[in-house]
Amino acid sequence: MDEKVGKFWDKYVTKKASRLYEAEKVLFEERARSLKIFYHLLGGDKAKELHITDKRFLKTSRTLLEKFSGKGKSFFLAWQDEKALYFPASLSYFDDKNLNEMHYYWLCAMLAHVNIKSNASINENKKAANFLIEKYSGFKDFHTNAEAFLLERYPELSTIKPLNEDLLDDNSYPNPLWIYPSHSSNTMLLDFDDEEEMGREDGKKDKTEELKMKKKAEQINDDKETDGLLLFLPESLMSLMEQVNVDRQENDSFDEDALYNAEDLDEITLGKKDANLASRIKMDLDISANSAEDYPLGKGHFRDEWDYKKESYLKNYVCIKPQISIYVEAIELPKRLEKMMKKIHSELDLMELDRIKIDNLPYGDELNLDTWIDYKGHKNHSNHPQRFFQSYKKKTRDMATLILADISLSTEAGITQDIRVIDMIKDSLMVFAESLQRLQDRFSIYAFSSIRNKKVNFHIIKNFKEKYSDRVRGRIDLIKPGYYTRLGAAIRESAKILEKQQSANKLLLILSDGKPNDVDRYDGRYGIEDTKKAIEEVKQKGITPFCITIDVEAKEYLPYLFGRNSYAVIRDAKKLPKVVTEIYMNLTR
Amino acid sequence: MSNTYYLAQSNEVELFEAAASMNLPILIKGPTGCGKTRFIEAMGEKLGREVYTVVCHDDLSAADLIGRHLIDENGTFWQDGPLTKAVRNGGICYLDEIIEARKDTTVVLHSLADYRRVLPIDRTGEVIEAHPDFMLVVSYNPGYQNVLKGMKPSTKQRFISLSFNYPKPEIEKEVIIKESSVNAAIAQKLVNIAGEIRRLSDSDIQEAVSTRLLIYAAKLIVKGFDPYQACMHSIVESLSDEDDVLEVLQKLISLHFTKSA
Ligand SMILES: Nc1ncnc2c1ncn2[C@@H]1O[C@H](COP(=O)(O)OP(=O)(O)OP(=O)(O)O)[C@@H](O)[C@H]1O
Ligand SMILES: [Mg+2]
Fold it and tell me: Which residues form the domain of A63?
């Protein structure tokens, strides 16, 4: 009996002491994306992340009831440092969900306006609050209501004692409408220019990634063994690479490098023939088919890299390893994409109606009245070229597009429980290929990932020569997240391929989920500068680069890398497949 | 003395006058709705020259610019196009959205846009020397949809370039007031909203709010529309199709103009 009463009492006290409204609670998680955009709207630093804060301890006098129940010692407060903004995981101070939501926006706006170096003093908070109240009538209403409500429920609120400057020692309840100083409020501003510093910062993350890398690297070594076996099959390989000149007389051993001299990457005839190869290898070696694997085309070749510190190129510094999947299964367009594809097709068909008129023909589909009247208007008919006809021709767009997909490890990241970024990239490639096929525009697809300058894996999914087919789809389907993103090297390689195309318009479309990085110094300013340089080279070659990137972090460097109008950020990765095609259509309209 | 209202953003008026006096052609770059067309109209009035505007598109032919033979009861006769009219009689020929035109159309401009200042007309065999008051002005919007189109360098390098952007807040505010006769407080809010949304444009949305849209909003408000609704219809909806962006923009508007229940 006593026990029961005790429990009941305990419950009563805790409930009474908690002055929050559970039912009206608003979660940070559900608002995080909106808050981030809002923060940018108010001029907040785009490089900052938004996070959930942990509890902060403040010395406060608690009400008798709170002391009783042991509540009220620590609080979730809003604060910021140089890298991020920190919000409470949920807010439920108010008895109205809208107000609790507005509370988040208020904190976000406050964070955009309090000066981070001023240590979030009371005066700074007041200044920012007054500014917001002045400028936004919505915040004015919110603040008036919120303050009245809070004061009534929390008579011990900080605002009551505005004289005390040092908030952390303030002996009263923290004001939920205010921004509090960061944990280590006298941390020096980080020097963001210093790469070494940055490297150490992320040391922990790197280690776990490195572990994964190691595992992968081992797998790759296994692959190499198999490659060794394949070396004994020059005949069948030759049939695959028919079009490539290999001088066998001179060098009797099979020279893989000849298969892949940079220039030849696009010459290799793919498609049917690798099926051929697969089956022959299967026959000859009795390796189980069905298990696709990457087959290296040559030992690799070298490309330059830009060292911004030295302001010069490091000659032949990066090794590009071209490869292609063999034993590929031909697959049809996945069911999940059918509906989207249908819709895009009908849009594309409208575009196809675009016809161009050709004038001044000696014969043709119809009479061109303008030329006829010109002729009539001429005094001297004999001098006039008698070309009165016009014809319509379907517009050939004279486009060559190379789509370069970043398949680094980070694309392993999940968007939802069972969809990863890489899945969206793969779907995008399929939809994109399908669309360009429909438009009869020329295109090729490559994917890449890197491990240092030693190895930039450059996967051929479809080159310009090969026809789009179920097999290409099979190759897309086989794409797996790889290692890092040595973007500059991959761009240079792509430019080499595009350069050789005859089309009038050349487009390099880069699909990426983040910034250039690698395990070496490429992660940071070095990588950014090399990529920027590579992009400049692309432009000089008369190729238009365009980057489509998925928003996973701040994208401040994008305009710096690609130029103001040469990139697009997709904030919702699930929309990528649709958007990639839309962007292409817009670009080439 | 001139009727068209134009408030200068910086030194563009002086530059235009200088170019006009030296017979140099002008290229104006700028986002949509920032006042390019308005500027040319105002300059035409100021200099007392007629403005012949041609909005370019990919079906525009050289004949649309230069002219063609037409028929009447007496047979065929030659009709000057807008370009030829301006070349003959003096005036400003303004080619809006020049990069929408095909390149084989715009080559007819070459001989006009350099020191020669002549327009050869193949169809009549005529070569017209440009009137001293003839001036060529072209404009385009360097948005991302246009990265592939560009202009031929040989065309581009014949022009003096003026780069337009959305006006500074004080100027934009005044323009809004003048154009819509909305009160200063509301104009200020609209300018504040625009300033905030334009901050987003790079990473979060592709379009930016134009001065034109702000004037639309102001006009709706003057008509008696609730400011929140006016902004939603004129500014927000046209900027993005992404739900979370729309939600935040909506929030932003509601903070400036409290929703009337
Ligand atoms: N400096 C200014 N002075 C006066 N009015 C202006 C000014 N800037 C913009 N406007 C107003 O903005 C409106 C849109 O401008 P305008 O039509 O000239 O845009 P534009 O740059 O030609 O756009 P587009 O590229 O879409 O043709 C004008 O009708 C005018 O009301
Ligand atoms: Mg205009």
Answer: 12-180
CATH code where residue A424 lies: 3.40.50.410
Ligand 2 centroid–CA B219 distance in Å is: 19
Mean pLDDT of A378-392: 73
Last residue of a domain, one of A216, A243, A275: A275
| ipTM of this predicted structure | 0.80
Token pair recorded at residue A151: 């004061």
CB of A561 closer than 8 Å to CB of A572: no
φ and ψ at residue A368, rounded to 5 degrees: -95, 110
Mutate which of B212, B219, B234 for ligand 1? The one with the most ligand atoms within 8 Å of its CB, which is: B212
Q: Are A397 and A441 in contact (CB under 8 A)?
A: yes
Instruction: Please give the CATH architecture assigned to the domain spanning B12-163.
Output: 3-Layer(aba) Sandwich (3.40)
Question: Does the residue A202 lie in any domain?
Answer: yes
Closest CA to A149 of A105, A96, A109, A79: A96
Put simply, the answer to whether A586 touches B245 (Cβ < 8 Å) is: no
User: Is residue A46 within 8 angstroms of chain B, CB to CB?
Assistant: yes
Q: End of a domain among A242, A275, A308?
A: A275
What is the tens place of the pLDDT at every residue in B79-95? Answer: 999 999 999 999 999 99
Which of A34, A36, A37, A107 to mutate: most B Cβ within 10 Å? A37
In percent, how much of chain A has pLDDT > 90? 27
What are phi and psi for residue A568, nearest 5 degrees? -140, 140
In a domain? residue A225: yes
DSSP code of residue B226: -
| Least confident range of A253-267, B29-43, B89-103, B234-248 | A253-267
pLDDT tens digits for range A194-250:
333 333 333 334 443 443 443 343 333 333 333 323 323 233 333 333 323 333 333
DSSP state at residue B232: I
Cβ-defined contact of A377 to B254 (cutoff 8 Å)? no
Q: Residues A207, A163: one domain? A: no
Residues A114 and A26 in one domain: yes
For residue A413, tell me if it sits in a domain: yes
Nearest C-alpha in A relative to B244: A34
Asked if B255's CB is within 8 angstroms of A377's CB, the reply is no
| CA of B9 relative to ligand 2 center, distance in Å | 16
